[in-house]
Amino acid sequence: MTSFSRLAALWLLASVLHASAGESLFESDAKLKVEAAGGAGGEGPAWDPALGVLSSGNGHIFRLDRKGNSRIYRKDAGTNGLLFDPTGRLLDCEPVQRRVTRTERDGTITVLTDRYQGKRYNQPNDLTMDSHGRIYFSDPRYGDRDGMEILDDQGRTIEGVYRIDPDGKVTRVIGRELERPNGVLVSADDRFLFVADNNNNTLGGARKLWRFKLRQDGTVDFQKRKLLFDWRTGRGPDGLKQDRLGRLYVAGGLNKPSPPFEPAKDKKGGIYVFTPEGKLLDFLPVPRDEVTNCAFGGDDLRTLYITGGGTLYSIRTTTPGRVLWPKSGK
């Protein structure tokens, strides 16, 4: 790391600590607002200044326009995680088709990857980008586990994290080092890859938020990984985003215990806010299970959109979010 990068990292950490000591993370009179219901807010919110908020739900992509109207934007899309890249193109995880795609501004769809070494993915779930244009996406399998094709040399299934380089080359960066990666996020300085490991239908399965050191070539340094938080026997973490001070907003928890796999009563459903080092700063309860993801938006990027139980919520924050699009959101 250069001296400038070290200074930037130290400044960011100091800013986070200073802000967490006295600043409220949500506006003083802020309340959760229902933006769209009826299944529209299932997963993957993503903000665009012209379109409004896109979200995955009921097998479609929904659009909440800037006037507050919700309607189907792309029918039968079969998507989960959504992300606008720095040029305003929509990146889509499509678990139904077991692929990752890119939708151009004119609506043209390009398949970025649908196989790894000739084998179909499990269910691409969530995605993130670094400053070099490399896309990282998770590939868990929830529900029926028949038809999983990606195996290790001992015949064991792999639910991994993959990197798509700008030239289209795909590399697996995390394999059986985690149980079932879900939400993924690269930090603003490209130093870290945050991964939500959520094996929610196995006794004793992982419900953990990890931070991995990223090398400059986009590979993961497994010797420098840090456990940030463990939901233990509760519902584990799902999607996550950062604000401009680097704080993590993580969807997770469960309001009603679900034994035998998730019997915990103390890990409620909502947005958990952490420092990059894993200190819990705040918790925003969300009434509907399951709380799946969040994204910053609005003209000042201080509106946090949250998906939970098929409902799309919003709440006002005191700090803008970090987004790739529009570019001024960095």
Short recap of the structure:
This protein is mainly beta and 330 residues long. The protein has one helix at residues 3-22; strands spanning 33-41, 43-48, 52-57, 60-64, 70-74, 82-84, 90-94, 99-103, 109-113, 115-116, 119-120, 127-129, 135-138, 161-164, 170-174, 181-186, 192-198, 207-214, 220-230, 240-242, 248-252, 270-274, 280-285, 291-297, 303-308, 310-316.
Largest sheet: 4 strands, antiparallel
Helicity level, as a percent range?
Answer: under 10%
Beta-strand segment tally: 26
Shape, per Cα inertia axes: globular
Terminal Cα span? 20 Å
Query: Mean of the pLDDT scores?
Result: 93
Give the number of helices.
1
- Our estimate of the beta-strand percent is 35-45%
What does this structure look like?
This protein has 1 helix and 26 strands. It is mainly β and 330 residues long. The strands form 7 sheets. Strands 1-26-25-24 form a 4-stranded antiparallel β-sheet, with no helix packed on it. A 4-stranded antiparallel β-sheet has the order 2-3-4-5, with no helix packed on it. The radius of gyration is 18 Å and the shape is globular. Mean pLDDT is 93; it is low at 2-21.
What is the topological layout?
Blueprint (H helix, E strand, L loop, with lengths): L2 H20 L10 E9 L1 E6 L3 E6 L2 E5 L5 E5 L7 E3 L5 E5 L4 E5 L5 E5 L1 E2 L2 E2 L6 E3 L5 E4 L22 E4 L5 E5 L6 E6 L5 E7 L8 E8 L5 E11 L9 E3 L5 E5 L17 E5 L5 E6 L5 E7 L5 E6 L1 E7 L14
Antiparallel strand pairs: 1-26, 2-3, 3-4, 4-5, 6-7, 7-8, 8-9, 10-11, 12-13, 13-14, 14-15, 16-17, 17-18, 18-19, 20-21, 21-22, 22-23, 24-25, 25-26
